[in-house]
Design a protein that fits this description.
Bound molecules: 1-deoxynojirimycin
Shape: globular
Helix content: 25-40%
CATH class of the largest domain: Alpha Beta
CATH superfamily of the largest domain: Glycosidases
Distance between the termini: 33 Å
Low-confidence stretches: 1-21
Largest sheet: 8 strands, parallel
Number of helices: 15
Structural class: alpha/beta
CATH architecture of the largest domain: Alpha-Beta Barrel
Length: 564
C-alpha cells in the first residue's frame, strides 16, 4: 500500500473516531431544556390562564433563543388543588388548557421546529376526584387495592381509632386521611386531595405503562417523572407501617422525617421498569431516545442509582437541584462545592450532568441570590458540562412577585409562578384578558422579552450567547479528556473552561461579588471577549492577555475565546 493511501486511511479513521466522540452525545445529554409552566406561559384566548395554543404561538421564540427541548408541567384534567399535580384523568387535557387536537398541533409544530417536547408525568398519586380513586373507595372492579388503604390502629383500652403511623405529608398534617364511606384511611404524601397509588399492585404498574404508551404514541419525546422518590413506602410483612423516629422531622420536629416514605429501594426498581419500557418502545417504533427526567430531592447516591446500579439502567436525567438552594450568601466557593457534590459522584460514575437553578417549587434565583447575579448564573449554568435547565422567565431574569396570591390561603409557591413577561403591553403580553390568574409582576414595563431583545448585553442576550456557545466544538467536547474544568478562583469569582483540545477554548469568568477582583497569570494565552454582561467595561472583540494581571468589575461576567 502506498504511504499516500495509508495517510488517507489514517485521516479517514481519525475523522470517524473524532466524529464518534461528539456524536455520541444524545439529545438529552447536552440540551438547553426549557421548563414551561402552562398556566403562566402564554394565554391565547383571553381567559387570563395560559394554554396549549399559547405555547404553540410562542414556539418560534425557543428557536430564536437557542432552546433545544422543553418540558411542560402537567396539562391533564385536574381540579387544580395542586395546580395539575393532582391528576383526575391521565389521558385527557385540562379543558382550560385546550383540547387533544391543540396538543397534537403543539407537538407537531414543536417537532417541525426540531424541538423536543417532554411531558410531566405524575405517577405517585392521582387526584381524589380521579375515577380510579372513586372506584377504589367503593372497592369496585379490582380497584380495591389501587391506593394505600389501612384500618389504622385501635386503642385496646378505649377502642379509639388513630392513623396507621405518625407519617406526615410533605405539605403538612398527617399523611393519612379517613374515608367514612370505605371505613379506612388512605395515604397521601402531599395534599389530602392527592391519594398515593399502591405501586405494589401490578395493575397500577400496568396502567401507568398504558398511560405512557398513550402519550408516546402521540409522539412525545419523554417524561419528567414527578416525585419518584415517594413511589413506594415501607410496610411490614404483618401489614403495619413503621413510625418515623421521633425528632427526624423538619427542623428536628417530632416526626415527619420521611424515613419510610422517601427513597425506598423499591422505587428505584420501578424506574428501571419504566426505562425498559421506554427503550423497548424505541426499539419497536424507532426515533430518538425517549428520555426520562427524574424529579427527586434526594442525595446523589440515590440519584446515581436512579441512573444505573451497574446491572440495570433507569432515568437518564435525574434533576440536579443543588443550585435551587443558592441564596444571597452563596459565593463562588459555594457554587464549586455544590457542583462538586454532583460531579464527584454522578459525573464520575455516569458522565452525566444537568444544572437547575429555578423551578415552580422554589423562589426564583434573582430574588434568592440578588438581581445583579442573573447573568453570572446564566453563564455558569450553561457553561458547566451537560444539560442546562431554564424555568420560564429565567432567561430575562424574572424575580418572584411576593404579592402574587391565587387563593385563600395563598399557595406558598405563587410568587415564582407569575405570568411570563413578553412585552410592555397589557398583562405583559401574556393575556388580553381583564385579569390574569396570578397578577403580572409590576416590573414588566421594563423587564420583558421585547425590551431585552433590543438591548445589547441584556440578560436575554447573555442567554442567547450561551446557548449559541453550547453548539461550538469546545462545548460539544465535554465528554472528552480535558473537555472542561471549573473552579472558584477566589471567594467570589467562578471560572469554567470549555476546551476542544488543540483547537479552541472558552473561559467564563463570573464575579458574584460587589468588589473588584484581580488575578495574575491565569494562563499564557491571549483571549478575546466574546460575551459580556452590562457590568463589564470591555468591548466585544477586545483582547485580554491572561499571562498578566486581569481585573473583573463587581458582578462582571464575561466569556473569553481562544482558538489555534
Ligand atoms: C413535585 C412538583 O414539582 C410539585 O409542584 C408538586 O406539588 C409535587 N411534586 C407533588 O406532585
Amino acid at each position: 500500500m502506498s504511504s499516500c493511501l495509508l495517510r488517507f486511511l489514517a485521516a479517514l479513521l481519525l475523522c470517524v473516531v473524532g466524529a464518534t466522540a461528539t456524536d455520541t452525545v444524545d439529545w438529552w445529554e447536552s440540551a438547553t431544556l426549557y421548563h414551561i409552566y402552562p398556566r403562566s406561559f402564554m394565554d391565547s384566548n383571553g381567559d387570563g390562564i395560559g394554554d396549549l395554543n399559547g405555547i404553540t404561538s410562542r414556539l418560534a421564540f425557543f428557536k430564536k433563543i437557542g432552546v433545544t427541548a422543553t418540558w411542560i408541567s402537567p396539562i391533564y384534567d385536574s381540579p387544580m388543588a395542586d395546580m395539575g399535580y393532582d391528576v383526575a384523568n391521565f389521558t385527557k387535557i385540562y379543558p382550560v388548557f385546550g383540547t387533544m387536537e391543540d396538543f397534537d398541533a403543539l407537538l407537531a409544530k414543536a417537532h417541525e421546529l426540531d424541538l423536543k417536547l417532554v411531558l410531566d408525568f405524575v405517577p405517585n398519586h392521582s387526584s381524589d376526584e380521579c375515577e380510579w380513586f372513586q372506584k377504589s373507595i367503593r372497592r369496585e372492579d379490582g380497584y380495591d387495592d389501587w391506593y394505600v388503604w389501612d384500618d389504622g390502629k385501635i386503642d385496646p383500652e378505649t377502642g379509639a381509632r388513630s392513623p396507621p403511623s405518625n407519617w406526615r405529608a410533605t405539605f403538612g398534617g398527617s399523611a393519612w386521611t379517613w374515608v367514612e364511606e370505605r371505613q379506612q384511611y388512605y395515604l397521601h404524601q402531599f395534599l389530602a386531595k392527592q391519594p398515593d397509588f399502591n405501586f405494589t399492585n401490578p395493575a397500577v404498574r400496568e396502567r401507568m405503562f398504558e398511560v405512557m404508551k398513550f402519550w408516546l404514541d402521540r409522539g412525545v419525546d419523554g417524561f419528567r417523572m414527578d416525585a419518584t422518590n415517594f413511589l413506594v413506602e415501607k410496610r411490614f410483612e404483618n401489614g403495619t407501617y413503621p413510625d418515623d423516629p421521633v425528632g427526624t422531622g423538619p427542623g428536628g420536629g417530632p416526626m415527619g422525617g420521611f424515613s419510610y416514605t422517601k427513597d425506598q429501594w423499591e422505587s428505584t426498581e420501578i424506574i428501571y421498569e419504566w426505562r425498559e419500557f421506554l427503550d423497548e418502545y424505541q426499539r419497536l417504533n424507532g426515533g430518538d431516545t425517549r428520555a426520562m427526567i427524574i424529579e427527586a430531592y434526594s442525595n446523589v447516591t440515590v440519584l446515581s442509582n436512579y441512573i444505573s446500579n451497574g446491572t440495570h439502567v433507569g432515568g437518564q436525567l435525574p434533576m440536579n437541584f443543588n443550585f435551587v438552594s443558592l441564596n444571597e450568601n452563596s459565593d463562588a466557593e459555594t457554587i464549586e462545592t455544590q457542583a462538586n457534590e454532583w460531579m464527584d459522584v454522578i459525573w464520575v460514575k455516569h458522565k452525566m450532568a444537568n444544572w437547575v437553578a429555578n423551578n415552580h417549587d422554589n423562589s426564583r434565583s434573582p430574588t434568592r441570590m440578588g438581581e445583579s447575579k442573573v447573568d453570572a448564573m446564566t453563564m455558569i449554568i450553561h457553561a458547566l458540562p451537560g444539560t442546562s435547565v431554564t424555568y420560564y422567565g429565567e432567561e430575562i431574569g424574572m424575580p418572584d412577585y411576593a404579592a402574587a396570591c391565587s387563593g385563600n390561603p395563598c399557595n406558598f409557591r405563587d410568587p415564582e409562578r407569575t405570568p411570563m413577561q413578553w412585552n410592555g403591553s397589557i398583562n405583559a403580553g401574556f393575556s388580553t384578558g381583564n385579569s390574569t390568574w396570578l397578577p403580572v409582576n409590576p416590573n414588566y414595563p421594563f423587564l420583558n422579552v421585547q425590551v431585552q431583545r433590543g438591548v445589547a448585553r441584556s440578560s436575554l442576550q447573555i442567554f442567547k450567547g450561551m446557548t449559541a456557545l453550547k453548539k461550538t466544538a469546545a462545548f460539544k467536547a465535554f465528554k472528552e479528556e480535558g473537555g472542561f474544568s471549573y473552579s472558584a478562583l477566589s471567594k467570589q469569582v467562578f471560572q469554567v473552561i470549555r476546551t476542544a483540545v488543540g483547537q479552541e477554548e472558552y473561559r467564563v469568568l463570573a464575579n458574584l461579588g460587589n468588589q473588584i477582583e484581580y488575578f495574575d497569570g491565569l494562563t499564557n494565552k491571549t483571549m478575546e471577549y466574546v460575551l459580556l454582561n452590562s457590568y463589564s467595561p470591555h468591548r466585544y472583540g477586545d483582547k485580554l492577555d491572561l499571562s498578566g494581571r486581569i481585573y473583573l468589575m463587581p458582578y462582571e461576567a464575561v466569556v473569553l475565546h481562544w482558538s489555534e
